[in-house]
Specification:
It contains ten helices and six strands, in the order E-H-E-H-E-H-E-H-E-H-E-H-H-H-H-H. It is α/β, with parallel strands linked by helices. The protein folds into two domains: about 140 residues, Rossmann fold, CATH 3.40.50; about 60 residues, Arc Repressor Mutant, subunit A.
Length: about 220
């Protein structure tokens, strides 16, 4: 049986950047570009009108900024994976994107090497970050950014799912490990995010490390 291609939308206000991203994606088997947007308003409309699996999103665009597009995407299309592709490595950008539920965060100078790997990761239920962003995430963790509450209220099964998510396992892998359905895994993940007050697997991983559920 033929596996359908991963459908990707692009949102960046630089025409040459979009062309470069499109070229990378269109030369990769199994990926299909289904839409482009040149500003925040177009990106929001694209999210609402186009069926896709992944949105590759710049943070700084005319009109509605990328963070607001991300917020709309996660609220209205929760299954849509959002991959931030930006030149901004500053911690405030990373923190805001993670808080709003970004699934991956790449710097544009590493896009050629990392973009396809990042898409593969988010489609498998994992997160993905450029090396410099991994360093920023580690700094935020070491400095003890506000810890989500509610870890004591997790069930044993939720703790198991949290540990496996934090170790980078996909929903399918967790389902196999625990002998449950993928749908059940996704339900546990949604409950974990709700109980712990986070919106991304990256932040769930931070909680798991901070609380000693897994070792760093």
């Amino acid at each position: 049986m033929t596996v359908p291609p991963v459908r990707v939308m692009l949102a960046d206000d630089h025409t040459l950047v979009r062309a470069g991203i499109r070229r990378i994606l269109e030369t990769t088997p199994g990926l299909e570009v289904v839409g482009e947007a040149a500003d925040g308003k177009e990106a929001t409309n694209l999210v609402r009108s186009e069926t896709a699996d992944v949105l590759v999103l710049d943070l700084n665009m005319a009109g509605t900024d990328g963070i607001e597009v991300l917020r709309v995407a996660k609220a209205e299309r929760p299954d849509l994976k959002v991959l931030i592709l930006t030149m901004h490595a500053a911690r405030e950008y990373v923190a805001r994107a993670m808080h709003e539920g970004a699934d991956a965060y790449l710097l544009k100078d590493s896009a050629a090497q990392d973009l396809v790997a990042a898409i593969d990761a988010v489609m498998a239920g994992r997160s993905y970050y450029s090396p410099a962003i991994q360093h920023t995430m580690a700094e935020l963790l070491r400095e003890g950014s506000k810890a989500p509450q509610g870890i004591q209220g997790l069930s044993d099964r939720e703790r198991e799912v949290l540990a496996l998510l934090a170790r980078g396992q996909s929903s399918k892998e967790i389902a196999t490990t625990l002998d449950i359905s993928v749908r059940t895994v996704d339900t546990h993940r949604s409950n974990l995010m709700r109980k712990l007050g986070v919106k991304s697997v990256a932040l769930l991983t931070q909680v798991a490390i901070r609380e000693g559920i897994i070792e760093q």
